[in-house]
Amino acid sequence: MDAFKDAARILLVRLGNIGDVVMLSPAVRALRRAAPRARLTLLASPAGATVAGLLPGLDEVLVHRALWQDARGDIAFDSKREQEWVRDLAVHGFDAVFIFTSFSQSPFPAAYACYLAGIPVRIGQSREFGGGVLTRWVRPLADSAHQVDRNLHLLKEAGIPVGRPQASALRLAVPAGARARVEAKLRERGVRGDFVVIAPGATCAARRYPAERYGVVAAGLEALDRQVVVVGGPKDQAIGEVVVAAARGTVSLCGQTDLAELAALLQRARLLIANDSGPMHIADAVGCPMVVLYSGTELEEQWRPRTAPARILRRPTACSPCYRFECPYGLECLRIAPGEVVAQARALLGETLREVADG
Fold it and tell me: What residues pair up with 41 in beta bridges, in sequence order?
């Protein structure tokens, strides 16, 4: 801890999706407590940067699409671009860097870039040997560990106190302006009182419960006198329209909210129904109960919600976890009847209502 207490500039690297950055929030808080005077900068992907501003404790966000995170292989060869980026990174004069990775990612490419940028203290976790690229080489937890625990483990092994178990709860700072804008958008569309949010999108097709089935779910919720709001990014507008077409009383805000407004919407919602996706993690961070259609691409124990009440739905399959973008088996892991989704939503709504009444 003393090694970082007087650090002036600390870099945190988390080059992943929206949910990966949301799950970094407990580690950011722990690092802020340990280094109260330091300027904390997050290096994030373009997707992760959209939510990074909601993490309490961060001072700055740098955006970079990293070559070593290029899962689809569509970044063109350009060594000068990479060299210029390293020079830009060096200008910041960071004293130390913490490199946060998932179980399948290596910290060494990022650590080597930071070495070239002149960052003297480089901390990451891996089971593989990387020579002197890391100044502190942390042996990770088991691959099945939750990502939040993995992040905190990196700090703990570096001598930074991570606090009690409740300190691992996800947390976002939702701006008052975002809440006001959401209220205005809901009023414009005639949404009053309680509502349920459906988020039918996900970063890859193998994680998406079919939009047609989400439409049946929305219609089932409307039959229970529940107002439904569909959310997603601009790319989700087409599947949002499919849901709305099946449930005429449903309202779509797909492509009409930024990440701060989405967080505000979920903070206000009674329930979220979603895939394993960014909205799932945001809901966990703002305390929104949820029913999750969790495909077999990933292990639940690594990413599942742990703070907000949640019901996880998935059919066991021999191919899980597959880590695929496309499913060749007709999404057998998500062969869940819409009626079952509605029943789980209804049960969870009843539970949370009782909790409010009991409280």
Answer: 11, 60
